[in-house]
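Give me structure tokens for this 83-residue protein.
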Amino acid sequence: MALATSLGRQTAHDVVHDAATQVATVGKSFSAVLMGDPRVAGHLDSSELDTILNPAHHVGLSADIAAAARRARVPTQRHNRPE
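Here you go.
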């Protein structure tokens, strides 16, 4: 979304898609390929890109969803079944 703000959604999507394709063929990291693209480098520096690509920043509501699921869990009865 950081690129979509400055490049437009479709162009940002194309940039990310192109970078992912290059990663598979050139053996560079995703961030290195993105920073090598002038469409990215003109809008983000490497520190900003590292922050954006850090998975820790993308957990969203995961902890809340897991906690709600844990609270809503109905304990199951164990049946003794002959083996």
